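pls design
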């Protein structure tokens, strides 16, 4: 699903009825065996298609070989307000297609991630939900809502009391005073590492050197970079101590109220995970 040979649809389809109307407006391609599946954007491009299920009458949008949107037909209901089902496939292309069809009511953030954190976040009505397996949206005149597929996120947060005690037990505060004093006296230059990022400490290594006294402290200082602010280097060291002493608790979050809240939660999971 990561190909680029996709032309986006030019029509919003915000209900079953509008999706069915769009489907019926597209002529089948002459000579094709499957006259039910029709190109949703550029004719002749079968990468993005729309079809009607002959058994359920649902209208389905397919990207390559995956059904990504299904408009549910309700024989005894109001099909302007019938549920819409999404398949959270993590790709930039899928996000673009979702926005072109369902935006601005639905905004998907389905991406591959290299760390332990949710990678299928769906925004509906200004709320950001973790939707790893499926999404069911309920259109409504008063505002769209997510009615299925959301799973809570366990977000770690620092137990500050335990964190302060862990830093004290590891001699961090004494090391910090030693380092700042020697820097002021020009007796303890930082290392010659040229990286623009703080040194990435393993928890066990950070605590080991902190507990060794001045010999270990000199080793820590030697791994710091002159290109990185001292506070950033110290923060990296502190977070390694927190991990070593398991100073993190977790809170259950059903959704985030803003994109910044969502990003902060993901960044915290990245640091701790």
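designed seq:
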């Amino acid at each position: 699903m990561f190909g680029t040979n996709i032309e986006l649809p030019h029509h919003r389809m915000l209900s079953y009825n509008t999706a069915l109307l769009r489907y019926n407006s597209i002529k089948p391609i002459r000579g094709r065996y499957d006259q039910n599946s029709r190109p949703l954007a550029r004719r002749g491009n079968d990468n993005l298609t729309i079809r009607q299920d002959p058994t359920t009458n649902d209208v389905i949008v397919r990207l390559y070989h995956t059904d990504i949107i299904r408009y549910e037909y309700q024989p005894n209901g109001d099909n302007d307000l019938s549920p819409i089902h999404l398949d959270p496939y993590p790709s930039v292309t899928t996000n673009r297609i979702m926005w072109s069809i369902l935006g601005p009511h639905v905004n998907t953030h389905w991406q591959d991630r290299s760390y332990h954190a949710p990678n299928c976040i769906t925004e509906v009505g200004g709320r950001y939900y973790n939707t790893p397996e499926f999404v069911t949206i309920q259109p409504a005149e008063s505002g769209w809502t997510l009615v299925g597929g959301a799973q809570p996120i366990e977000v770690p947060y620092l137990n500050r009391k335990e964190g302060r005690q862990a830093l004290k037990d590891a001699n961090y505060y004494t090391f910090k005073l030693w380092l700042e004093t020697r820097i002021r006296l020009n007796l303890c230059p930082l290392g010659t590492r040229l990286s623009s990022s703080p040194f990435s400490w393993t928890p066990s290594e950070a605590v080991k050197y902190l507990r060794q006294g001045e010999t270990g402290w000199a080793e820590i200082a030697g791994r710091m970079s002159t290109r990185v602010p001292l506070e950033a280097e110290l923060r990296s060291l502190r977070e390694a101590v927190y991990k070593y002493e398991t100073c993190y608790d977790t809170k259950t979050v059903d959704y985030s109220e803003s994109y910044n809240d969502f990003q902060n939660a993901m960044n915290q999971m990245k640091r701790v995970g």
